[in-house]
Here is the input.
Amino acid sequence: MEYPLRSLLPASGVLAIVVSQNEYRGINTTMTTDHSFSEKIAGMKDEVRGLQDSSERENIEQTAVRLEGLNYAPPLVIPVSDFLRLTSGELLAEIDRIVAMPDQEACALAPDEPEKCQDLRFQFISVLIYYYKQLLLLRQGDPDTWDEVDEIYVHD
Here is the structure.
């Protein structure tokens, strides 16, 4: 599937969240070479392959419908309705799509800094994986994760 780049406004807030998450995971978010970028993407894809999603399609759909009812809207570069129904295999395909996205699209948030394209791709993928992990917990009915979602989307 092809998706136009969604606005990640406020960009500074999104990037701050991702950088904090990456620092916690010990990932250097500064890209220096194509080789290091490829290695980091390969590591992220290995991480996705290691995630356990035993959800049946019915559970995936029920979780998606519930989250859509809350207007759940994480800052993603794909439509939320598609994200909520992703499997790990589809997430891997989405990572490949982001890596292959044209520089014009990847650099939309930093048009005057073309060297940032790899950094932005890395950030887009980091955000997807972060929220996918949360989505897996929601599909499993994890009460703490549902409490976080409720706190953000119901109680505010």
Q: What stands out?
A: The CA atoms of residues 70 and 150 lie 8 Å apart. The chain has eight helices and no strands.
